[in-house]
Amino acid sequence: MEKGLQGLNYTMEHIGSTSVPNLDAKPIIDIDIIFDNQEDFEKIKGALLKMGYYHNGNQGIKDRDVFKRNAGRTNEILDNIKHHLYVCPADSKALERHILFRNFLRKNDWARLKYQQMKYELAEKANQDKKIYAELKELNVNDFIDSMLEK
Questions:
Q1: Are residues 76 and 126 both part of a single domain?
Q2: pLDDT category, 151, cuts 50, 70, 90?
Q3: How much is the pLDDT for 26?
Q4: Are residues 86 and 129 in the same domain?
Q5: Nearest Cα to 81, choosing from 34, 18, 33, 21?
Q6: Residue 123: which pLDDT band, with cuts at 50, 70 and 90?
Q7: Which of 52, 83, 121, 134 could covalently link to 73 via disulfide, CB atoms 3.0 to 4.6 Å apart?
């Protein structure tokens, strides 16, 4: 991915459960690409489109654009590493939330364990149905994150 973005003005953050040591997680890497201004976004978007991604809008979250792999294009590495790719402005609240929560879980074992337990309970409620799990997680995780970030 870095090769396709070479020469552009951006930074990258590994976020999500796989970015927290000792936190059980699905094997999906969450990545935030961060830019400073709209011109940078357009250049990043263009490069991602050339790499075989498509822009999937913000999916209801302000200042966090989602990019997904285009089934018509192939890349040996990008197609074999499951990942979620987000592009955010540096002043994005969604980005800030991702980083604050990741860092909080990295520094607080009790919070990491509590979050992990919550995810297991949600998976059990969902009876291993990925769609139901995602819906339950969306409903419950936001409240959990808010309560953790208040601490």
A1: no
A2: low
A3: 86
A4: no
A5: 18
A6: confident
A7: 52
What the block records as the tokens of 15 is 């976020």
- pLDDT of 7 above 80: yes
In a domain, 97, yes or no: no
Residue 64 falls inside a structural domain: yes
Rounded Cα–Cα distance for residues 51 and 87 (Å): 15
* Amino acid symbol at 101: F
Average pLDDT of the residues in 29-38: 95
Token representation of residue 6: 């070479």
Structure tokens at 42: 């357009």
Tokens representing residue 53 in the block: 């991604």
| DSSP bridge pairs for 66 | 86
The residue assigned the tokens 């796989």 is 18
* Exposed e or buried b per residue across 117-135, where buried means at least 16 C-beta atoms within 10 angstroms of its C-beta: eebeebbeebeeeeeebee
- Calculate Rg over the CA atoms of the chain: 16
Structure tokens at 61: 């979250």
Domain of 78 in residue numbering reads as 1-92
> Which residues face 83 on adjacent strands?
29
C-alpha distance from residue 26 to each of 23, 30, 83, 119 (Å)? 10, 11, 10, 11
Q: How far is residue 9's CA from residue 18's CA, in Å, rounded to a whole number?
A: 25
